[in-house]
Amino acid sequence: QVQLVESGGGLVQPGGSLRLSCAASGNIFSINSMGWYRQAPGKERELVAIAVSGGNTNYADSVKGRFTISRDNAKNTTYLQMNNVKPEDTAVYYCNAHLRLTWRNSLVFQYWGQGTQVTVSS
């Protein structure tokens, strides 16, 4: 069974910084991508940032230049460094991963973390 466990959420003032972590554990053969989504009250879940194998990254326009996603492949962990946060960044942040469970086939499965609350307020 694969689990994604997030940590690092909390309350931060506007202009401040926060770092989220997400560790994947379980029977994992390889990870194709790891990313972060967020969902604010009354809104749909949206992509924040994603890092794919090979080092490519992609960001939502609203966080470009402020957030940075990184991966530690040895630890099956992804990080989201959030700088210069704004009240509109307030949301539940979810870790997402697409991964393979075995070398025997090329099936890719999607997993979600339980979510971590980020609140930006003075």
Number of strands: 11
Helix content: under 10%
Distance between the termini: 40 Å
What does the largest sheet look like? 7 strands, mixed
Descriptive overview:
This protein has no helices and eleven strands. Strands 2, 4, 5, 6, 9, 10 and 11 form a seven-stranded mixed beta sheet that branches. A four-stranded antiparallel beta sheet has the order 1-3-8-7, with no helix packed on it. The protein starts with a strand and ends with a strand. The protein is about 0% helix and about 55% strand. The chain is elongated, with a radius of gyration of 14 Å. With about 120 residues, the chain is mainly β.
Key traits:
7-stranded mixed sheet, single chain, 4-stranded antiparallel sheet, 122 residues, 55% strand, mainly beta
TL;DR?
0% of the residues lie in helices and 55% in strands. It is mainly beta and 122 residues long. Strands 2, 4, 5, 6, 9, 10 and 11 form a seven-stranded mixed β-sheet that branches. The protein has a four-stranded antiparallel β-sheet with strand order 1-3-8-7, with no helix packed on it.
